[in-house]
Amino acid sequence: MPPVPVWFTGRDAVLRFLAVRAYTRAGDLAMVPTAANGQPAAAEYRRGDDNVMRAHSVHVLTPGATGIAAMTVFLDPSLFSSFGLPSTR
After folding, report:
1. What is the pLDDT of residue 64?
2. Is 76 contained in some domain?
3. Which residue among 30, 37, 64, 75 is buried most deeply as judged by most CB within 10 Å?
4. Cα 43 to chain center, whole Å?
5. Reduced to 3 states, what is the DSSP secondary structure of residue 64?
């Protein structure tokens, strides 16, 4: 899979992206807490045009001394079954 054409370094860059581009309607996404390899993670569901929330990605958070040190996102909905999560909700 080719790399995604966005990359963020630092909290402010992530917040700018979320404020300007990410999600405009409340309720269009849901984050479900989980864990991956002993690290906190969240499974992301996104609402489709048919109003169904579908598996989208898994976000693995690497904790650091002052907060989140890194976030690795896996854009592969097929991973949800490995976490015991449904593909829709």
Report:
1. 94
2. yes
3. 30
4. 6
5. strand
